[in-house]
Amino acid sequence: MKRIITIIATLLLSSSAIFAQEADKKVGELLNTSNWFELERVYPVVKDDMQTPMLKLMAEVMLASNFNRPAELREKLQKLIAEHQAELGFGNVCNMTVMGAMIEGYEGNYAVAADMVKAIADAVKSANGSLEGTGLSELLAYYEAVREYPAPILERPAEDVKIALTEKSGLMWIPVVVNGKTYDFILDTGASFTMISQDLAKDIGAKIIGDSVFVGGGESTGGYGQRAFIENMNVGPISLKNIIAFVSDNPSDDDPLKVDAVLGMDFIKRAGEIQIDPSTMALTIPAQKTLPRYGRNIILEVNIPVVEASDANGNRYTFILDTGASGDNLSDFWFSKNTEMTAALPIETQRTWGHGGTVQNQIVKVPEYKLTIGNASADFKEIAATVPANGTVSSTRDGRLGMGLLKQFKKAIFNFEDMFVAFE
Questions:
Q1: Is the dihedral of CA 167, 171, 177, 179 positive or negative?
Q2: Predicted confidence (pLDDT) per residue in 347-403, tens digit
């Protein structure tokens, strides 16, 4: 997952001086550390005791952003900036406005997103004289290029939809029909939007939009490239209209996956809920959503799901949920928190292929590792943990859980309305 711009608001304030009450201190700490899962647990309990209106609104904005409540985010963000702009400071106003613009963009409100980013870009130029290094120019170019395009729409029948998947190279491939022809796409929760290769874009007659610019997304869909407008794609009886897809380079000759297409979160999130049976390679998109059993345990970061899990000692970790990854791994961030466990393990070099390219890292292999997600336990053997390069930690999450996790269960449920994942 690659970020276009850092969007996490930071409150560089002294808790002892500013927050008069313990509730305010606790919420301020959770905001500063971007601990959204703990904030989700703590805020409903302490909000009535909080003394700082700006801090309460900030907490509500960040919870709405991370737990996929765009309408609430829109309302709270406008109120926060309108009423507390001076308290927030210029940097936080910019960051939070960009965060709101990106959410509008994911919803297909491109003109709104473009106007929001332009306003911030103009303000930054007035204050600093340059946008270099901010990512705002690239983000604005993207939204301006798609400004006049309609928002994506998902149309589906009233009954459950069942689709047969195919397994290849350890990944799930789903048939997608465009202009009467069927193509195999990777079903990928680790891609924030749909990706097609240059050859596939030509084959389906997709309309290329603008010049090549940097587009954020997952490892499979991030980077420089063009966008293309696809009027309609059919996934079984489901129709996804007005897709803005990322156009990638064609797969290279030495790429073992030869990926031409990825069906990403722009489809999956709009489906509301997907259920996967890895043993039979069956996908169900239910008409009636599953009721949450253990509360919310996923958030969306740049439109990609992140799950909270705990280890055998009760320590909490966060992992990217990526069905576009054939295996699972622990990041350098996890490594930095578990040096006692990894100190005696031999370091080796690992070269891995993904549909985002080749990655080479120094790793250790953890012999046995157990995680609990909700009420389900998963066991991992010889799972790779990345050693920080030159002692520098680059990850913000504890790793990536992919098909190695899913294949341990009969069913995996991803629900993006109530924001939970469950395994049976």
A1: negative
A2: 999 877 655 556 788 999 999 999 999 999 999 999 999 999 999 999 999 999 999
Dist. CA 356–CA 324, nearest whole Å: 10
Beta bridge partners of 316: 310
**110-128 vs 136-145: helix axis angle to the nearest 10?**
150
Residues 6 or more apart from 128 whose CB is under 8 A from it? none
Token pair of 269, please? 């999130």
Sequence-separated (6 or more) residues with CB below 8 Å from residue 269? 68, 106, 300, 303, 416
If we measure between CA atoms, which residue out of 274, 272, 266 comes closest to residue 240?
Answer: 266
In angstroms, the CA 6 to CA 16 distance is 27
Q: Which of 415, 404, 326 is nearest to 369 (CA)?
A: 404
Three-state secondary structure along 215-272?
Answer: ECECCCCCEEEEEEEEEEEEECCEEEEEEEEEEECCCCCCCCCCCCEEECHHHHHHHC
Sequence-ordered list of residues with C-beta below 8 angstroms from that of 407, at least 6 positions apart, any chain? 278, 279
Determine if residue 72 is left, alpha or beta; phi over 0 gives left, psi from -120 to 50 gives alpha, anything else beta.
alpha
The 8-class DSSP code of residue 35 comes to -
- H or E stretch including 102? helix 90-107
- The pLDDT tens digits of the residues spanning 148-190 come to 999 999 999 999 999 999 999 999 999 999 999 999 999 999 9
Task: Kindly compute the dihedral angle of the four CA atoms of residues 142, 145, 150, 156, in this order, to the nearest 10 degrees.
Answer: -50
The phi and psi torsions of 130 (rounded to 5 degrees) equal: -150, 150
